[in-house]
Structures are given as structure tokens and as C-alpha cells.
Design brief:
single chain; 4 helices; 5 strands; 3-stranded antiparallel β-sheet; two-stranded antiparallel ribbon; alpha+beta; 129 residues; 2 domains; 39% helix
């Protein structure tokens, strides 16, 4: 690795540490070419080696496959509604016209979940959330 190449890699590593801290990932300096070429990292949280473009690494730290999965699950949990928040949102949206009382909201997982809606005119029907 040429000294200018090593300098670029060290500079990238320094910027990554400033942005994300020392406890996320380390770059394998010998694999760094430039910010647009895949290089190797090791996740310090899960001790997994993975490849990523340095530009992508700096724009949003996603980490290894396990980090990505955990981040996705965490996001899904923050977006998940409670029974009460769903009922408030639905009643607000439809001005209390429909009834949602025949649902087991413990089975609710996400927007793909199917619930029973009761219309005063057409009776019960199923719908995705």
C-alpha cells in the first residue's frame, strides 16, 4: 500500500471514529482503495467481518448483518402501535363510524396485519391495517 493510500485510509478511519466512536467497527486498512470501492470492516459489537463502501459507511452506520437486523427490529418496534393508539387513530380517521371491538389486538404485528372492521351498514369485513 502506497504511503498516500495509507494516509487516505488513516484519514477515513479517523473521520469514522469521530463520527461513530471507537466501539462500532474497524476498517481493514489494507483493503481501503478509496471511498467508493468496497473494503473490509470488522464489527466490534458482533465480531463479524463484512464489506461495505466507505461512503455508505459514513452516510449511515448500518454495520454487519446482525447490526442491520437489530436496527430493523428496533425501528419496527418503535413504529408498532398499541391497541389504544390504533383505535384512536382509526376513530379519528373515520369519525367513529366503524367499530373495531371484535379484534384480538395481541396478534397485531405491523401494517400487514388483518383486522375485523364492523360497518353499521355492511356488517363485518376484514382489512389490512
Amino acid at each position: 500500500m502506497a504511503s498516500t493510500q495509507l494516509e487516505k485510509a488513516l484519514l477515513f478511519q479517523q473521520k469514522a471514529i469521530e463520527r461513530f466512536g471507537k466501539d462500532k467497527a474497524i476498517i481493514h486498512l489494507d483493503t481501503y482503495v478509496d471511498r467508493n470501492v468496497l473494503c473490509s470492516f470488522t464489527c466490534l459489537v458482533h465480531n463479524e467481518k463484512y464489506e461495505q463502501r466507505p461512503n455508505n459507511f459514513m452516510s449511515s452506520y448500518n454495520g454487519c448483518k446482525t447490526c442491520k437486523k437489530e436496527k430493523k427490529e428496533q425501528l419496527a418496534n418503535t413504529l408498532r402501535h398499541t391497541k389504544e393508539s390504533l383505535l384512536v387513530a382509526y376513530n379519528k380517521k373515520h369519525n367513529g363510524y366503524y367499530s373495531y371491538e371484535n379484534n384480538d389486538f395481541s396478534k397485531y404485528k405491523d401494517w400487514k396485519s388483518i383486522i375485523t372492521i364492523t360497518c353499521p351498514v355492511h356488517r363485518r369485513f376484514l382489512s389490512r391495517i
